[in-house]
Amino acid sequence: MRAQVVFATITGNNEAVADDLVAHLEERGVLVEKSEISQSEPEDLANYDLAFLVPYTYDEGSLPDEGLDYFDDLADVRLDHLVYGVAGSGDTFYEDFYCLALDKFEQQMEKTGATKAADLVRINLYPSPKDKERLAHLVDQAVLKVTA
Fold first, then answer.
1. Which of 72, 85, 117, 136 has its CA at a distance of 20 to 30 angstroms from the CA of residue 79?
2. Is the pTM above the cut of 0.85?
3. More confident residue, 89 or 94
């Protein structure tokens, strides 16, 4: 089983989320590639069984600037075989705009025909031990859907 974890980060929080996902996947024997969103292409997801997208939300619900092309290109890719998850950090200070990019990426992934592993995981700032448990659950659900 192969997975790709694609992340965008400014503060380093989302790279920590990506690292946690990678660790959980490796614990389950999954071969994982982690890549920064500006160095990734949605078409590459066709080479994987699992994908995890980890975007940040900028300003009032904006997508990461470095991920705009990736986001737009997702709409043109068919990934019927893929199981995906979306997770990422934000700041609850922004209230109504908290982690909105996660919802947008989830909606974009739905257009690809990929199968959602589980509910997205919103993390306030840096991942806590409880958040790491939620990320592990997301990975478990994704692996189960691939092997089912």
1. 136
2. yes
3. 89
DSSP for 29-68, please give it: T-EEEEEEGGG--GGGGGG-SEEEEE---BTTTBPPGGGH
Tell me how many domains the chain contains.
Answer: 1
- Both tokens of residue 67? 């991920």
Strand partners, 124: 90
CATH code for position 73: 3.40.50.360
Q: What is the DSSP string of 94-114?
A: GGGGTTHHHHHHHHHHHTTTP
The pLDDT, as a whole number, for residue 40 is 97
Structure-token pair, residue 138: 């997301």
Q: Which domain holds residue 27?
A: 2-147
Mean pLDDT score, 111-134: 97
Which sign does the torsion angle of CA 6, 10, 14, 15 carry?
Answer: positive
